[in-house]
Design a protein that fits this description.
Layout (H helix, E strand, L loop, with lengths): L2 E5 L1 H8 L8 H10 L4 E4 L10 H14 L4 E6 L13 H8 L3 E4 L20 H12 L3 E6 L6 H6 L4 E5 L1 H10 L4 H19 L3 E5 L7 H4 L5 E6 L1 H10 L1 H13 L1
Parallel strand pairs: 1-2, 1-8, 2-3, 3-4, 4-5, 5-6, 6-7, 7-8
Helix pairs in contact: 7-8, 10-11
């Protein structure tokens, strides 16, 4: 069964547009879990545009107390340190929250959204050291990766437990050309080949970015897929169908 991990960044973004605490990220987490989500994802950034440190701590406490079987996944750049704006640094957040999984993403502080994976074509001793540190804390470590077959073995060699495929190019190809176009099939085949390479070296497989109800059914057939992280599409579709029913629909797609 493929796990749906609901990304709550856009809930926090909406809340931050006004004073006060509405909508609540903890209430959104409770509703997502009630509708079948098996994980909660946050991506706290140094500029605190959406998820803030206090959200990370509150969600960690909520899941530990009320939903111990639900996975907590914290995404971010492992090299993001403390800022004057109050961001304590990525490693500090992980140490304090003790999530089940840490997903390491190579994004810059001012990047609008994640748009590429790690390039492991050259040695990455600093990244390898970060992976070792998070594993020593008891976290499973996933690396945000493009579907490059040759780099799957390297990801495993430097200590990763899983990879999360950056699925933006797949989603864009699907939306532009449709599910039956050769370009869409070729794009998906590239992900399948990379997935097979990841499985061959013992990596688990996650995926995320621009997946929605339209393009998810095909991608859910990816070999070895264990988890998808979705947030933006859920919020867009929830404007028409409602938050809870939208999450339930994603769970139904993945269970099929």
């Amino acid at each position: 069964m493929i796990t749906l991990s609901v990304n709550l960044n856009k809930i926090a973004l909406l809340r931050n547009s006004r004073d006060g605490g509405k909508p609540s990220v903890t209430d959104a987490a409770r509703e997502a879990i009630a509708r079948g989500a098996g994980g909660i994802t946050v991506h706290p950034r140094p500029d605190q545009r959406h998820i803030r440190p206090e959200d990370v701590y509150a969600l960690a406490q909520l899941l530990a107390d009320d939903y111990p079987s639900v996975e907590f996944n914290i995404e971010g750049n492992p090299f993001a340190g403390p800022t004057q704006a109050g961001y304590p640094g990525f490693r500090h957040l992980v140490e304090a929250a003790k999530p089940h999984q840490v997903t390491l993403v190579p994004d810059s502080d001012d990047q609008l959204t994640s748009d590429h994976g790690w390039d492991l074509a050259t040695p990455a001793p600093a990244l390898e050291a970060e992976i070792a540190a998070y594993r020593a804390m008891g976290c499973r470590v996933s690396l945000f990766m493009d579907p490059v077959m040759e780099q799957m073995a390297t990801a495993k060699a430097i200590g990763a437990d899983r990879i999360e495929f950056y699925t933006g190019p797949y989603a864009e190809t699907y939306w532009t050309h449709g599910p039956n176009d050769d370009r869409t099939r070729d794009c998906f085949a590239q992900f399948c080949q990379a997935a097979e390479s990841a499985l061959a070296v013992g990596l688990g497989i996650n995926a995320g970015h621009d997946l929605d109800q339209e393009n998810l059914p095909l991608f859910a057939s990816l070999p070895g897929l264990q988890e998808v992280s979705i947030g933006h599409a859920i919020m867009c579709e929830a404007l028409q169908a409602g938050y809870g029913p939208t999450i339930q629909r994603y769970v139904e797609i993945l269970h099929r």
